[in-house]
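B., you asked whether I could sanity-check this one before it goes into the benchmark set. Here's the sequence:
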Amino acid sequence: MPAPPSCGPHASLISRNQLCSCGSGKRFKHCHGAVANGRGGTDLSLSPEVALNEALRQQLDGHLEAAEVLYQQALAAMPEHFDALHMMGVVKLQLGKSEQALPYLLSALRLAPGNSVAKCRHNVGLCLVGVARQRGILDALKQPPAADLMSPFGRASMFPPGDQSARGRVSVILTGFDLVEIRQSLATVQLQQWRDIEVLTVIARGNELEPQLRSLLEACAVPCRLIVSEHALDWMDQIEAAVVAATGDILCFLRAGDRWGSRWLSHVALALRAGAAQWAFGGMRVVADDGSIIRFGQLPDVDALLRALDAMYLHRTASLAFASFNPIAGGSNLMVRRDFWQHEGRLARDAPDPLLEWAWRVARDYEPAYVDEPDYLISPSAVPGHLHQQFLTMVAGTERSELTGDMTNPCLKRGLAEFWRRQWRQVAASRIETLPDGVLLACAAMLGTSGIGRGTPP
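And here's what the prediction gave me:
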């Protein structure tokens, strides 16, 4: 039951001669208008607030079609009213019109007050299941497509200490200008067991931090180069200039303030060199200032999954790992063959996180190597809050691509099938509370619906 409706603007009332919105073909006065007041006629003086209250009364009394008409009358005057949108969705759901109900409930979810979010999400889930079942989506997701190619996959135990095979120079591109954080990152670079390393960082000419940054780099035990550029206007310019100056055949991107375990570089570089992969990444841990692990990954459910995986070996494709639970890793600790980076072109400047967007775009055609031990360390303040939602935005709609088979990378295809099958299983089991709103909206987008005025018309 909705909370008492708040006051809204005055209604533009339904005309007695207007065709009834139920689709009967009759005029409103001879159809649901006659039912609405129970007296064989219609009260044209109803304000939208009164229409909303009357609709709820009719709904509770089981007169669902009359309630549907009255909710429509209220929405004509108050299109952004949460109670009207939510209850219109509920009454359509009760009438078995799941596909018509979904846009209303999605719009209501966007407006829901805190104490109504759970109930609204539950109703969205019921609609998703109803529509997906009608269209055969749930049946289509029962079996994942076969993968013809297994991805390069590594555990740290695969690379014994002192392994001298497949060595080569790694060019570490350091971005950011916080001097304290740069000192932190350089300290962990010096501890790496991979010995052939160079560090490059780029600064714009005239930057007042240049002398201090130069001193920090000169004091580092690892060879470092400071590149002063006329065109380093942002960190993407810095990356491009550093790539041009790099001499290693592998590029590794490091944000100032991030830290590595002593064998992280060896783990990922050896995994990259062990196969034909063109790029690689590893897991990630969030650590406190004293070095203690706070959590794995970005979200609590990610944390729980990664902690479980840390305790057991579970073979899976790298794309499955990338698409399923650790999207932040793909954009935060990339390692890329230098010629491949140059071949794949520039970063997308309009992306909220260009490195993550690059990784996702490239993963469609080229399978990465992946080391699943989270040994890339970041502080809680360094976790960008938007990445999980951005990842969901990027994968929204991939369900259709996956089903039609137009994806080049078979491992990513398998990973996405598993990712969406898991989301739909949660929806079908009414475990809506385990899913972020982004997943619910992405599932609705797969069905061609995103809300009133933003998707399929009701």
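One thing to flag: Residues 392 and 438 are 6 Å apart (CA to CA). Otherwise nothing jumped out at me.
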